[in-house]
Each structure stands twice: as structure tokens, then as C-alpha cells.
Amino acid sequence: MTQAQLTVLAGPTAVGKGTVVAALCKRYPNLKVSVSATTRNPRPGELNGVHYYFVSPEQFDSMIERGDMLEWALVHGKNKYGTPRGPVDEALAAGEPVLLEIDLSGARQVRSNRPDAQFIFLAPPSWDELERRLIGRGTEGPEEQERRLATARIELEAASEFDHIVINDDVERAVGELAALIGLE
Ligand code: 5GP
User: Could you tell me which residue ranges the Guanylate kinase-like domain spans (predicted)?
Assistant: First the structure.
């Protein structure tokens, strides 16, 4: 099996990207997951430099101006999120597999900059299940939930743009399928 160097994983809010990626990293410590920069505030338990680089809107804009972002997007119409280019290029140069967990618009930018990357869409088993997961995790208020569900509807319609669709019906099963697609051993 060949190893895809750069893999982009996208999928709607609350589909379980965070859980799946954490399980994937635990099983395959050689996989490098890019740490994004964001202007949103940390949630309880989130650490700067681990889950995200939490930066001010001004810091974010100067990263864009310096050309330091491989891609970036305004997500859910609210906060900016982006992939710092340096660590990705360094890992790829060292021959390490790299995973980006980003939104649809970011995935489209990477598609045009790095056509050799592999694009995987993580999908929920059903729309009802996605709503249940978003409301059940309780990290967003009703207004933010609505905003995220609106984005999710648009993202789900774009699933066919991706090279592969993985259904997150069971975390361990989805992790196994992803590992095979990425070529992890
Ligand atoms: P959350 O606020 O729940 O951590 O993330 C919200 C969304 O931002 C997720 O759907 C995630 O895929 C997206 N996201 C996280 N990091 C990046 C990034 O670096 N670039 C882009 N384009 N989207 C990102």
C-alpha cells in the first residue's frame, strides 16, 4: 500500500472528527496532525499549542499577510481558522504523513494548492444522528448550534467532491478505515 503524504480530513460539525483523529493518533503515533491557528476562545480543557494556537484576530491577519497560512477560512461565519504552513512542510520534507482536519473551504484551497493530497470526508450515519451528537455534547448554545447545523447542511452536500467518504458509525471501525486509506502501519 502506498502512503499518502498529505491527507485532508473534513466533515460537518459534531460528526466526531476530534474523537476519530485522537484515536487515530493514539494508534499511530507516527502520524503528524497539524495544529491549526484560530481566533476563537479556548473551550474548557483546550490547551494552546496542543488543540489549537489561540491567537488574536490581529495576529491571525498578520500570519495571512506574511504568507504563513497554507489555507484559512472563516468557519461558521464567525471565527477564522488556518493551517500554519511551516510545520506541514517540515513534516512532509521529513517524509512523515501529515493530516489536516479542516473545513470544506479550507479543503478546497488545499485541493488547488496541493493536488497530490488525499481528500477524505467523514460523514455521520444520518442527519438525525448528527443533530443528536451536536446537541448532546452541549458545548454550544442554541444559536451557535443552529449556525453549525446550517454549515453542516452545506458541507454534507459537498461530500462527493472528496476522494473517499468514511462513515463515522463506530469510532474504531472508522479509524481502521482511515488508517488503511492513509496507508498507516
Ligand atoms: P471547532 O471550533 O469545533 O474546534 O472547529 C470548528 C471547525 O473548524 C471544524 O469543522 C474544523 O474542521 C474547522 N477547522 C479547524 N481548524 C481549521 C483550519 O486550520 N482550517 C480550516 N479551514 N478549518 C479548520
Answer: 4-183
